[in-house]
């Protein structure tokens, strides 16, 4: 038997079924007209943002990292909830503009921005988080051509990282950001050549569950930003401090102690170095805002035995749930939180392998999991599907196509 990850608190049973946003799984499937599907609960997103606002000092804003879930309705739902939007492509820019988001609230990070993308961002008035000297030079030239000063912040590649983070994005050689020691010269050049200077972006990692690690990284970020501001000789209108707040996916994972992170940050914000006294501060969060609000529902289409092992074969799989299958940035495959949605809360009685419908042994949703007995037609729920599910999985693989997404 292999345990499954912890189901996020608050997912209750309604008439023997998993309820999402107060509605039974089978009712949601009927509304979508098919399985598999993603369901995102507005109420959970709202509650998460409210928790954050309560924990964080008012001085620190919250940005939504759109890549976690760029569904148009999710972006529109976020618009009044968060302060800013962090995008990483012209595609995400178009989605934000279509949702009516003020470009002044949008910042654009990501290595390898093409000229067309820079142009779209500069024309719209979006802040570029500049990833290199070359990108800064191209942005200035495009701004000149458009007759519009590009709004530019510099993304710093810090020499430290967010410890225990699921994906390391800082420390040592990286394709992301400008090495910290090269930032002052670049900033002075950009300012000198007419950029609308916006400050710094320092992202140190992702998916951290340790409050201590986040608190330490935030201290390092503030110190580095203050030193860089002094070296640049210009203030920082804004400092994007990164994020990295994680959610529990696997057995043994404990939720982040948010109040502790918030209290430590409040203390730091009380005594900011002079260089940051006037700076607008923000965090950028993706999965922490939306991950636990999403559930992936798929249907069991076959139940079979092989060499004494029971397989529940579903119509879902890694083409929608690459991360849950264990093939997106994990070394050792572990089970995501999952359940039989149509027998939710029933006594678990058998050990099963829940797999997807793709012809590859990689397509696993839960290995050796203890579940209530399920039959063909029952629904399987994979939790923590609100971030990096639909948008970060190869939906074209084997021709199944994307799954519908419902915001409820
Ligand atoms: C991916 C990414 C994020 C969001 O990460 P989460 O783990 O979803 O919070 C934020 N900022 C940058 C620069 C990123 O690349």
Strand and helix map with partners:
Blueprint: E1 13-14, E2 17-20, E3 23-24, H1 25-32, E4 37-40, H2 42-55, E5 60-65, H3 72-78, E6 84-87, H4 90-98, E7 106-108, H5 115-124, E8 127-130, H6 133-146, E9 151-157, E10 167-168, E11 178-179, H7 183-192, E12 196-202, E13 205-206, H8 211-232, E14 238-243, H9 258-270, E15 280-285, H10 287-290, E16 294-306, E17 309-314, H11 322-325, E18 338-340, E19 350-355, E20 364-371, E21 379-382, E22 405-407
Parallel strand pairs: 4-22, 5-6, 5-15, 6-7, 7-8, 8-9, 9-11, 9-12, 12-14, 14-15, 17-19
Antiparallel strand pairs: 1-2, 2-3, 4-16, 10-13, 16-17, 16-21, 18-21, 19-20
Helix pairs in contact: 2-9, 5-6, 7-8, 8-9
The chain binds pyridoxal-5'-phosphate.
Residues 65, 67-68, 86, 109, 203, 206-207, 243, 284-288, 387 line the site of pyridoxal-5'-phosphate (PLP).
Give a written overview of the molecule.
This protein has 11 helices and 22 strands. Helices cover about 30% and strands about 25% of the residues. Strand 5, helix 3 and strand 6 form a beta-alpha-beta unit. The strands form 4 sheets. Strands 4, 16, 17, 18, 19, 20, 21 and 22 form an 8-stranded mixed β-sheet that branches. An 8-stranded parallel beta barrel has the order 5-6-7-8-9-12-14-15, surrounded by 5 helices. The mean pLDDT is about 95. The protein has about 400 residues and is an alpha/beta fold. The radius of gyration is 22 Å and the shape is elongated. The chain has 2 domains: about 150 residues, Lyase, Ornithine Decarboxylase, Chain A, domain 1; about 220 residues, TIM Barrel (Alpha-Beta Barrel), CATH 3.20.20.10. The structure holds pyridoxal-5'-phosphate. The site of pyridoxal-5'-phosphate (PLP) has 15 residues, from strand 15 and helix 10. Pyridoxal-5'-phosphate binds next to strand 15 and helix 10.
